[in-house]
Amino acid sequence: MTGTAMKVMVAMSGGVDSSVAAALLVEQGHEVVGVTMRLWGGESDTGCCSVSDVDDARRVAQQLGIDHLVFNFSDDFNEHVVDPYVQAHTTGITPNPCIECNRHVKFARLSERAELLGFDAVATGHHARVTPSVSGTGFELERGADRAKDQSYVVHMIDQAELARTMFPVGDMTKADVRAHASRLGLRTATKPDSQDVCFITSTGGRTAFLGHRIPFRSASVVDTSGALVGTVPSVEMVTLGQRRGIGLPGGGPKRFVVDIDVPRAVITVGDEADLLTPGHHVGAMTWVHEPETLAAFETVLVQCSAHGVPQPATVSMGADLSMSTGTDLPMIEVRWLEPQRRIAPGQSIVLYDPTDRFVLGGGIAGAPLLR
Amino acid sequence: MAGQGSEQQQRGGTLLRVNTADPLTYLDHAATTPMRPEAVEAMLPFLTERFANPSGSHRFARSVRQAVDEARDIVADAVGCKPGEVVFTGCGTESDNAAIVGTQRRHGGVAVCSATEHHAVLHAVEHGGGRVVPVDAAGRIDLDALAESLADDVSVVSVMAVNNEVGSINSLDAVAEVVREHAPQALLHTDAIQAACWIDLRTITPHVHLMALSAHKFGGPKGVGALIERHGTVLEPLLQGGGQERDRRSGTHNVAGIVAMAEALRLTDMERVADNLRIAALRDRLVDALLHALDDVIETVPRDAKIAGSAHVCIADIESEALLYLLDEAGVCASAASACASGAMEPSHVLAAMGVDKRFAAGALRMSLGRTTTEADVDRASAVLIDAVHRLRGGPR
Q: Which of A284, A314, B148, B316 has its CA 20 to 30 A from that of B210?
């Protein structure tokens, strides 16, 4: 995607990665406009959208000599990210809001706006790469060069049409390279810490305060796998599958994990690690980088279940019973681990990579575990 | 690294050149107006040799004091009040806050305002637990609803003379009558910040106790305003301090700003009738061109209910942010609603209060004309705007 000068809209959060992304595009001779999205209108002390982050983005843009705009997508963000996040917790589902923001806002709303306004491409500061397809047509979505900072997991939903107009300028760099480049340019964001948390959840109040203001919490009984009552928790909505702490059990005993959450009955089951293991998962709402048929080329694939999780080998079968789907009519697959793995909390994203662990094949949302 | 630095400076320099030398079509007079050259001229001596503090006790101070006193006379004349009723402030927002918060601190009670007030009034009223009165479809306060909201507990009523977004004019005469009848104890404040260019302030003043003005909306500098406090109205000052401004406002006088504000208001008052006629014709030309060329565009407020400088339209099936980008790209300066601290456009509380259909409100565009607007400006703006709307409605290419 390099070589000819294009008109590029770069999403600038006010962090170092997107600052350097903008700088690189300018250095490459593109016509660049920086945009900061205003997404969350409420209280925030962690992520993007604060006035000082917009200040940082604007000052970097000024230093680079590019225009900087602020787009207000807070309605879209509420509709597609915050409200579903809150609702999901009432049904025992744990979504990843950053992925839904990428799916519905950055690589949809912003990208459509950019196209409408005559931009050839949208760039972000994600550590991922768009590379020419190995098969010769289209593009691959490849992990970032810095494996420790790779963000291909959170942008896995970008399809071919979108990849053709997406640029990740820092994807070939390590984080250290990015910071060094920012320092060389004297960008004010050079030493700014990485944002870690969900932007609309404050570090002081946390998830509990955020959800507690929006949904009623119901206390739940905690039982062991034999059904015996072993404790209570104040809110079934706050419990996540696999959780170990904060489930009202005395310390000192064997490690116990949340192995089941029955939201309607408000019962949490705890058990040992073996009770968490499953041979595989149904995965719904699949999106694919190429056609799903490309999967046939691989006997096994690598499957990653969290932003920095270790990918595990698995086989994939298509066309599972759609009645098991996660509420959308997007296709569903079955992922079967080569070795049993811990169950994935429903709502989490599951992303498939090729056996070399370089290219994203597709991804979806964790549904029910396979029983056998 | 020196090479990198100079390259950046060069880019910065290029940007500056683009911003100032390229033709700009400025249709954002409601945001701020270009300063009148006479006002610039008037303020310069006080930024240079006449720097004394007017509250001082030496002859140097006294000569500056005289300039402030003369400015006060000029403002009073244009407003139609006594010089002693003019209190210079730091900005329009301060004037509005001083009126509402100052009344409540002095007299207690609650504040009442219309739903389409500028945030300087609306937020001050809401912060103090006040009541908000609905408006009609043209953005004017609903007088029946106002009457219903008034009671013994109301200490101040605030109704803007001219709305800053859509340009609607409230009849303060009628508002005053309702307030006198239903809350005779209440003070009536008007935010006349958008009125000065268009309406003879002397026609408003007799009906109100308090009036807020802001210099940069009529060719004066930013950072200076006035609060007219009539009929011996006594408020609690917002700022505690030396009481330099007639014991009603503390802080050293912004002498240059005050002098320039007076000069700008004097000229505005002199030229108002002619400007109204000329600018109304330009506004009509602009809006007629849009209505003729584009489907599904509404003129937000009828022409007989708004000021001559207001060309606010709502364009269906497009988004203001996208439209403003294309206008900006073509060098046309306009706006939509107010922006938040980050610079993002907020949905307009004014259009919501007026009940404008969301399909149209999403495509709100405020073009505001003023003293320096030319026929070439409005012709260029309408051509650019029509092209941009076609492009946005055509969808992604």
A: B148
Whichever domain contains A151, its CATH number is 3.40.50.620
Give CA separation, B197 vs B33, B38, B381, in Å: 10, 16, 22
CA-CA-CA-CA dihedral for B278, B281, B283, B287, to nearest 10: -170
Rg (CA), chain B: 22
**Distance from C-alpha of A208 to C-alpha of A357, rounded to nearest angstrom:** 36
Q: Which chain B positions have a beta carbon within 8 Å of A50's beta carbon?
A: 342
Interface test with B, best of A64, A72, A76 (most B CBs within 10 A): A72
Any domain includes A208? no
Instruction: Tell whether A284 and A260 lie within a shared domain.
Output: no
Question: Quick check: is A199 catalytic?
Answer: yes
Say if residue A95 is in the same domain as residue A174: yes
Decide if B385 contacts B342 (C-beta within 8 A). no
The answer to whether residue A1 is domain-embedded is no
How sure is the predictor about A291, in pLDDT bands with cuts at 50, 70 and 90? confident
Domains and CATH numbers, chain B: 20-35+272-393 (3.90.1150.10), 38-267 (3.40.640.10)
Phi, psi of B334, deg, nearest 5: -140, -170
Find the angle CA(A348)-CA(A114)-CA(A200) to the nearest 5 degrees. Answer: 40
Q: From the CA of B322, how many Å to the nearest CA of chain A?
A: 7
Instruction: Say how far apart CA A185 and CA A181 lie, in whole Å.
Output: 6
Q: What is the pLDDT of residues B185-201, one digit of tens each?
A: 999 999 999 999 999 99
The Cα–Cα gap between B110 and B183 comes to: 12
Determine the length of chain B: 397
Closest-CA residue of B relative to A111 is B396
Number of domains in chain A: 3
CB of A190 within 8 A of CB of A16?
Answer: yes
Q: Which long-range contacts (CB under 8 A, 24 or more apart) does B172-179 make?
A: B172/B204, B172/B207, B172/B208, B173/B207, B174/B143, B175/B141, B175/B143, B175/B146, B175/B207, B176/B207, B176/B208, B178/B143, B178/B146, B178/B147, B178/B150, B179/B146, B179/B150
Task: Write the CA distances from A313 to A253, A316, B192, B267, B395, integer angstroms.
Answer: 33, 10, 71, 80, 43
Show which residues of B are catalytic.
Answer: 340
Taking the Cβ of residue A64 and every Cβ of chain B, the question of whether any pair is shorter than 8 Å is answered with yes
Closest CA to B313 of B302, B322, B301, B300: B300
Q: At what angle do helices A175-185 and B2-21 cross, to 10 degrees?
A: 70
CB–CB of B397 and A118 under 8 A? yes
Which residues of chain B does A72 touch, with a Cβ-Cβ cutoff of 8 Å? 321, 340, 344-346
For residue B20, the distance in angstroms to the closest alpha carbon of chain A comes to 14
Q: Which amino acid is at A327?
A: G
Query: Please, what is the end-to-end C-alpha distance for chain A in angstroms?
Result: 45
**Of these residues, A48, A98, A199, A305, which one is catalytic?**
A199
352-391 of B, contacting A, C-beta below 8 A: 391
Distance CA A147, CA B268 (A): 65
The reply to whether A224 and A164 lie within a common domain is no
The answer as to whether A283 is a domain residue is: yes
Angle CA B68–B74–B80, to nearest 5: 130
A191, part of any domain: no
Predicted TM-score (pTM) of the model is 0.88
**pLDDT, chain B, mean:** 92
Predicted ipTM beyond 0.95: no
- Please give the share of chain B, as a percent, with pLDDT higher than 70: 93
Cross-chain Cβ contact B397/A70 below 8 Å: no
Cα separation of A61 and A68, whole Å? 6
Do A62 and A111 reside in the same domain of the chain? Answer: yes
Residue type, B274: A
Domain range holding A314?
Answer: 276-369
The string of pLDDT tens digits covering residues B39-57 is 999 999 999 999 999 999 9
Specify whether A231 is located in the same domain as A288: no
A186 contact residues in B (CB cutoff 8 A): 5
